[in-house]
Amino acid sequence: MSPAPPIINTPDGLAGVLEDVLATPVVALDTEADSFHHYYEKLCLIQVATPHREALVDPLAGLDLRSLAKLLESKRLIVHGGDYDLRLLNRHFGFVPGELFDTMLAAQLLGQKELGLAAL
Q1: What is the tens place of the pLDDT at every residue in 41-97?
Q2: What are phi and psi of 29, to 5 degrees?
Q3: Helix 66-73 vs helix 11-22: angle between axes, to the nearest 10 degrees?
Q4: Mind listing the pLDDT tens digit for each residue in 31-52?
Q5: How far apart are the first and last CA of the chain?
Q6: d(CA 70, CA 90)
Q7: What would the pLDDT profile of 7-29 be if each residue is shown by its tens digit?
Q8: Helix axes 83-93, 66-73, angle to 10 degrees
């Protein structure tokens, strides 16, 4: 069993994530938000994975995440059902992805009946 990804909630931790994202062309990305209990959704977690590292970035820790968002715009992103994630990141940071691969959309195009990550 692999260790849990680190929770990034300090400037030094974020610097390490930025360094790793900068060094790779492809990044897997996911977000979590609290929109059920808030009128406007609140970004609660950004999950970032590269071939060398996984990290859970805590947007509630008061870090300036604009540099991460800007860097991610230049990467090939892999998401799963990313429409909400992309809207959320755009609303918070003006994020516009450059290149995107959505595994759920790809599965739909291939005619898969089950589209969840576990099924794929």
Answers
A1: 889 999 999 999 999 999 999 999 999 999 999 999 999 999 999 999 999 999 999
A2: -140, 140
A3: 10
A4: 999 876 656 788 999 999 999 9
A5: 21
A6: 11
A7: 999 999 999 999 999 999 999 99
A8: 130
Any idea which residue has 């800007």 for tokens?
70
d(CA 62, CA 25): 27
CA distance 83 to 30: 11
Calpha distance 25→65 (Å, rounded): 19
Q: Strand order in 54-57's β-sheet? A: 7-8, 54-57, 42-49, 26-34, 76-79, 99-102
79 neighbors 103 (Cβ within 8 angstroms): yes
Token readout for 27 is 């990044």
Q: Which residues contact 68 (CB under 8 A, 6 or more apart)?
A: 14, 17, 18, 21, 46, 48, 57
Here the tokens at position 118 are 């576990």
